Amino acid sequence: MDTIILKFGGSSLADNEKLKMVAEKIIGLYQKNHNIVVVVSAQGKTTDKLISEAKELSSIVQDREMDVLLSTGEQISTAKLSMLLNQMGYRAVSLTGWQAGIYTNNTNQNAMIKWIDTARIKQELEKRNIVIVAGFQGMNENRDITTLGRGGSDTTAVAISAALGAKNCYIFSDVDGVYTTDPNKIPNAKKLPAVSYEEMLEISSEGAKVLHNRCVEIGEKFKVPIITKSTFNNKPGTVISDIIEENTVKSIVKKEVSRISVIGNGMIRNFSMIKKILEIIEENKLEILEFNVTESKASITFKTTVNDEILKKIHGIM
Known about the structure:
The chain has 318 residues and is of the alpha/beta class. The chain has 2 domains: 3-174, 3-Layer(aba) Sandwich (Carbamate kinase); 251-315, ACT domain (Alpha-Beta Plaits). The chain contains 9 helices and 18 strands. It has helices at 16-30, 46-57, 63-87, 119-126, 152-164, 197-205, 213-222, 271-283, 308-315, and strands at residues 3-8, 35-40, 92-95, 102-104, 113-116, 130-134, 137-139, 145-147, 168-173, 178-179, 191-192, 194-196, 226-230, 238-241, 251-255, 259-263, 288-293, 297-302. The protein has an 8-stranded mixed β-sheet with strand order 3-6-2-1-9-13-14-12, sandwiched between helices. A 4-stranded antiparallel β-sheet has the order 15-16-18-17, with helices on both faces. Strand 13 and strand 14 form a beta hairpin. Helix 2 (46-57) runs antiparallel to helix 3, helix 5 (152-164) runs parallel beside helix 7 (213-222) and helix 6 (197-205) runs antiparallel to helix 7.
């Protein structure tokens, strides 16, 4: 029986109605005779709220205690989702990061996963339980709670996928895949059916809030296919894997530090695209601080902030 990993972000778990939608997605896949491990983030803006409350109490917050506090957000999500699934007639069990056997180094707030003891997870799966794991957290050698940093639940999901040899790792959020650029800024942005690990790392490093960098690195190292999908519809998502379909431009990302990056395998040999980008820059009288081209990315840093209209023009030549 195949094991698949499902990760749900905070926006997917924000209230009871959304929790029910998540539960229905889980049940649909469970009924297809899969073993299911679910990794969850904290609900909505819970982590931000906890950080703010901690800072109200003390101007100097101990790192260890902050990790203890922040880890509670994901634990709330696991308990609620487990309660709901059991109420709906499907056996589920919630596990904290340390109950799930996730061991990290000793760094607080940005810990790295060292290894995962999968015995407890496998034990629950053998009972045909749906296993719900709190993302973003683990335990160090002193048995202290640690957290993995922003986006750490993505890392938890892919790391568990690698440790279990799972067939796929699905990352569910409020967007239904990876787009050629930000669809909120460029209405004709296109969803990409497939992206290589290398391209996804470039897209993430440029600030696109799709996947946590470290989860992509783990996916690439252990050859875990990562599928990004929407919690709120059934549209096909984007598959991130080591299969490179073609040397084409995949994505254009604009950072707030006045940088635009054009990402796609073979970029260093895409002379036509580079020429068109330079023409747009010249036509709009933009001053360049730096222009770098690598195998998979052309990155332009400007002297002043560029507006979204420039992003739209560059996207238009794809």
